[in-house]
Design brief:
Elements: H1 6-21, E1 25-29, E2 37-44, H2 49-59, E3 63-70, E4 75-83, H3 95-102, E5 117-121, E6 126-133, H4 138-148, E7 151-161, E8 164-173, H5 183-198, H6 217-227, H7 235-242, E9 248-254, E10 259-267, H8 272-282, E11 285-293, E12 298-307, H9 316-332, E13 338-345, H10 350-360, E14 363-373, E15 376-385, H11 393-403, E16 408-411, H12 428-435, H13 437-442
Antiparallel strand pairs: 1-2, 2-4, 3-4, 3-11, 5-6, 6-8, 7-8, 7-14, 9-10, 10-12, 11-12, 13-15, 13-16, 14-15
Length: 450
């Protein structure tokens, strides 16, 4: 049940009024750096401002190479060094206006995050949210149920982590091409999907709910997996994870400034900054200052945070929870397995057929992005074998022949492989001293943290 109080509503109205009186100001500078475009965003401060800005830049397919964040008091100032996805500077024409337009005040909805199958409606599609225990063939079963129920999948995104699965699926009615509104039909879809998700042993996905409003797809996936506690690892998950390279996350208290300092390093990949900010926001922390550097294969981030009640982290147990949750946020989107791209004419039941072929050949989908552009299906799947190991080349070629050699392609993905890291000699403090020393030192934040 959502909690609401008059004081919460009043605070929200004051925030909206402050933003209307002081809308975000965006400036773009292509002269300050030879390698990146500088984007500066200044606005009245409110909770969630940083996430909004990072989300907008991410949705514009911009790569954030560096970021300097400061938001003490009633004002925030964010500076980002960005490129396009090819590493080039941005054209100045119109980019500031596009960012400002995207940052205009929006209404926010507060929803329960405990559901495992939920629906949202948009003008042309219905959105299904799924969470459950991951297992080989699960995605195939989900798409088969939707195909049998005459539901056309327009788009979808699927994440798996720590034996859990979360998915947001956009469907419409096969016959009409419009969203599905009939309550009885929606209830039948939910019940059948819930039966699939539960399988033989999943007791964590026993709830269903119909959601209202809409939200950012990837933002929602983070919320769903966090609510599903994918950061809790059982013994098997822990042993499996220990064999792979792990992010380095440290949490310390900065006594004289009454902040908690969160530092992390890991192999860089697109949208990493967005993923960590999402998690800190979901955990009810406010970022007051931050520095981010991602100019090579490794990414380094440092945050100065407090809980929404204004207090730093007070216990070792809470520090451990922050560490586990940030590790989960980093690894949710990390792509394990071979990247397969499917591009071809879309048709009803295509996903059901493709994922069935994957299942019959012993492939397990670890992540998926499904889209329909005009009449073309543009889908990306990351696959392993049923044990989570690399798939043999002959198996991939057999799958390609069955689906179509001109339709399904194997693609290299520079971000799907995480190289080993040397945790013994790493010093995040030295990285920030040498590469972004002026910013945090000028704020008096790099003195006595312990």
């Amino acid at each position: 049940m959502d909690h609401w109080s008059p004081s919460l509503a009043v605070d929200e109205e004051f925030e909206k009024l402050a933003i209307r009186m002081n809308p975000p100001r965006v400036t773009v500078d292509n002269d300050a750096s030879t390698k990146a475009t500088l984007i500066q965003v200044a606005s009245a401060n409110r909770r969630g401002s940083l996430l909004d800005v990072v989300q907008v830049l991410t949705d514009l397919d911009l790569i954030i190479k560096r970021a300097y964040i400061s938001s003490d008091g009633g004002w925030f100032m964010d500076v980002f060094h960005v490129t396009d996805k090819h590493g080039n500077k941005l054209p100045e024409d119109g980019i500031a206006e596009r960012i400002q337009q995207s940052l205009r005040p929006r209404a926010y909805s507060f929803q329960s995050l405990t559901r495992s199958v939920g629906f949202q409606s948009a003008p042309e599609h219905t959105t299904i949210e799924l969470t459950g225990r991951d297992r080989p063939g699960l995605l195939s079963e989900v798409f088969a149920v939707l195909a049998d129920l005459k539901c056309n999948v327009v788009a979808a995104e699927v994440w798996t982590h720590n034996s859990r699965m979360a998915s947001v699926v956009y469907i419409n009615d096969e016959a009409t091409g419009f969203r599905i509104d009939d309550p009885e039909r929606l209830n039948r879809i939910k019940q059948l999907l819930l039966h699939v998700l539960r399988g033989d042993r999943d007791t964590k996905s026993a709830n269903t709910a119909v959601s209202v409003g809409s939200t950012h797809k990837e933002r929602r996936l983070h919320q769903m997996m966090y609510a599903d506690r994918d950061y809790d690892m059982n013994d098997m998950d822990s042993r499996s994870s220990s064999m792979r390279s792990k992010p380095i996350v440290t949490v310390e208290n900065c006594v004289d400034k009454q902040y908690t300092t969160v530092s992390l390093s890991c192999h860089d990949r697109p949208k990493l900054f967005f993923d960590t900010v999402c998690t800190l926001t979901d955990m009810q922390y406010v970022v007051y200052h931050a520095t981010v550097i991602a100019e090579g294969p490794e990414a380094y981030q440092e945050y100065y945070i407090r809980h929404v009640d204004g207090c730093p982290i007070s216990s070792d147990a809470e520090k451990e929870r922050v560490i586990h949750c940030l590790e989960a946020a980093i690894k949710r989107r990390s792509s394990e397995g071979i990247r397969l791209e499917l591009c071809g004419e879309d048709r009803v039941g295509l996903l059901s057929d493709v994922t069935r072929i994957f299942r019959e050949n012993g492939l397990s989908v670890t992540r998926a992005e499904v889209a329909t552009i005009n009449s073309q299906a543009v889908n990306v799947f990351y696959v392993t074998d049923a044990s989570g190991d690399q798939v043999k080349t002959e198996t991939i070629e057999a799958v390609r022949k069955e689906i179509g050699l001109t339709i399904l392609h194997v693609k290299e993905d520079a971000y799907s492989i995480t190289p080993p890291q040397d945790s013994g000699r790493f010093s995040l403090g030295n990285i920030f001293k040498s590469r972004s020393e002026k910013f945090l030192y000028s704020l008096g934040l790099r003195k006595s943290c312990s």
